[in-house]
Amino acid sequence: MTSTTTRTERGTFREQREHVARLHSYLTRYQLVTWTSGNVSERVPGEDLFVIKGSGVEYDDLTWEGITVCDLDGNAVDGVKKPSSDTDAHAYVYRHMPEVNGQVHTHSPYATAWAARGEAIPCVLTAMGDEFGGSIPIGPFALIGDDSIGQGIVATLRGSRSPAVLMQNHGVFTIGPSGKAAVKAAVMTEDVARTVHFSRQLGEPLPIAQSDIDSLYTRYQNVYGQ
Fold first, then answer.
1. What are the Cα distances from residue 119, in Å, to 39, 54, 105?
2. What are the two backbone dihedrals, phi and then psi, of residue 113, each rounded to the nearest 5 degrees?
3. Positions marked catalytic
4. DSSP three-state, residue 47
5. CB 3.0–4.6 Å: which of 47, 136, 176, 199 could bond 121 by disulfide?
6. What pTM does this model have?
């Protein structure tokens, strides 16, 4: 459980905390968050620790001191800010998915609208085949405050090619090999959620054959880019 003990600032992992603080600017730039909602976390390389945004810290005021260092049980070990209310969920994912080094949570409006319906976003865009390797799945309803959300994320994404899950009635959680990769997945989730929503206003979107999805995913993950 997340510790509520008041901590002093020792300044550990300051460079990574500065990096994660900067990553939050993508959430505001792409309008994925409102007020203080949402967060980015990243595992500390070589340590059983991760860093995460402090609870209720405003984005305009976010510096490295607004990022708290936690252990993999969700206890704050350095930083003056109480960690995010999603800390236990992030900690559960890090404990159970060692390949995950970054996580993001948003309530981005189009993607969260799909979550409110309890409906996966179908893979009807080549960009979805590229990034997600299929549909963006729905995770179970879970209350915030313990690791129940983390359990739902792991149960849904373990063995899935998708780096994103829509937690029912809640919002978007994304994972990645780094914090920036998880941020990219969150940006892409909102982008395709919006486009598929628009498409459904015109009629039923056309599905993409699984073999073509597999081909798109393989090319994008292994060939695309520098």
1. 23, 31, 18
2. -60, -40
3. 130, 224
4. coil
5. 136
6. 0.95
